[in-house]
Design brief:
Elements: H1 3-17, E1 19-26, E2 29-36, E3 38-40, E4 45-51, H2 55-62, E5 65-72, E6 77-88, H3 91-97, E7 114-128, H4 132-145, E8 153-158
Antiparallel strand pairs: 1-2, 1-5, 3-4, 4-7, 5-6, 6-7, 7-8
Length: 159
């Protein structure tokens, strides 16, 4: 597959899945937490709302290299992405990104502790299988015949 088609697949999968695990560096350790992703291919960015007082924001200030892991286990679709993160207090962007999940953490988009976390992707890898039942049947058949299962597409993509 060519890079443009693979990149399209990555962006579409991230948008479809919508939630990911954001991994940051905490010294020598890696910390991950679930986040609601706002995927914007036109801006070549994945946005998140975050709190100015959160530990992850401190991690990012020390080391802006992050990982995002999107997973839809039910449909056997996954994206793993590396990128560069930055934080801002862009109040207009906060308003644009405000959604129902944000109400679990803040009362309104006017909360002064809300920050925008922007991840600019560097590269990604995706796994996109035809679905759980089909994948399991192919894995079972491969196990019985000593071959490798063909369970979907996978590619590493420069974004």
């Amino acid at each position: 597959m060519n890079d443009d088609r693979d990149a399209d697949r990555v962006w579409k999968l991230m948008e479809k899945i919508g939630f990911c695990m954001l991994s940051t560096h905490d010294g020598e350790d890696i910390r991950a937490r679930p986040m609601a992703a706002h995927v914007d291919r036109n801006e070549h960015a994945i946005y998140f709302l975050t709190d100015a007082n959160s530990h992850k924001d401190e991690d990012i200030k020390r080391n802006p290299n992050v990982g995002l892991a999107f997973a839809d286990a039910g449909d056997q679709k996954y994206v793993s992405l590396t990128g560069h993160a930055s934080l801002s207090n862009d109040r207009q962007k906060v308003g644009e990104l405000w959604s129902t999940p944000a109400k679990a953490w803040w009362d309104s988009p006017d909360d002064p502790t809300i920050r925008v976390l922007e991840v600019t992707p560097k590269d990604a890898q995706y796994w996109d299988s035809p679905g759980t039942v089909v994948s399991y049947v192919k894995m079972l058949a491969a196990g019985m015949t000593d071959s490798r299962p063909a369970v979907g597409d996978s590619a590493k993509v420069k974004l």
